[in-house]
Amino acid sequence: MMSVFETEDYHGYNVKFSPFAPCRVACAASQNYGLKGIGSVYVIDFFTDENVVQLYTALRWPDDGLFDLTWSEVCDHILWSASGDGFIQIWNILQTSQDFSTISNPIQVIKAHSKEIYAIEWSLIRCENPSVLTASWDHLIKQWDGVTAQCMRTFTGSESIVYDAAWSPQIPSTFASASGDGFLRIYDAKESPEIPFLAFRVNEGEALSCDWCKYNEFIIATGGTDGLIRVWDTRYVANGPVSVLQGHHRAVKKVKFSPHSDSIVASVSYDFTTKIWDFKLGLNPVSNPLLMTFQNHREFVYGLDFNLHVKDQLADCGWDKLVKIFTITPFAPLL
Fold first, then answer.
1. Where are the annotated WD repeats, by residue (predicted)?
2. pTM above 0.70, yes or no
3. Between vectors from CA 187 to CA 181 and to CA 188, what angle results, nearest 5°?
4. Domains defined for the chain, CATH in brackets
């Protein structure tokens, strides 16, 4: 069963499931494809057994489009969003408004970057001090204190737009970034912010997305404008990717590893599709790593996330103003 939510006149950029509530997801969206106008985060509650999807609240940023969001990992009603004017907005979704459906006043606003912020992510390792990463078109990555919202460090090294940044779920203080120069860079947040400890080309064009395997600290997937997904072992990058997943016909906007499997990867693309892969099948030349293809949207598909609480449940969003929540049914590899 697939649940559908329409984001009014706003084009979807990314979706994130709540780390606390199994039936809640949020979507960052922008008017006019993010070129101008208002940004909005839709906080959506869904009940798939009853096929009910309803708006909990909408968060409005009047000054520019919103391109990404991240839920607090320490407080269930706080989320951060990132906008095209370089600002971070911190929201309390429990605030009420006059019509009880929209919130227009963040609890805190931070001028974070000089250009668009394209990615924002809360740290995943609970034993660390909570912190947040932002990645921007100004070629910078910044680390923010998740409690005080103060800037802790600024990371350089990219020669182009930084489209994505992802904390390692296993190695403390470690994160990766994907950039318009086609490189993946891996940093230790406790070491020099000017020099990543590992940098290598992962795409013939622009690298748009990266995500770590949740069960192997050395495995990371990348996607970009050449339409390929590459899976890397960071110990052996000189040998090339361990698996190359081919099937998208246009740029891969987002890749995500399943939180419930060491080999399942999902991807969304400008070819309007969402695909599910088993990258380990790609290690065998006679096996097809592509497991499923969903034609969920009529426009570019931009956002993607797995639900930590519900096995094999995903959400995606696109420029057709739709959020779709669906579950992967049991499948057999396509041989």
1. 220-235, 245-280
2. yes
3. 175
4. 1-119+296-330 (2.130.10.10), 156-293 (2.130.10.10)
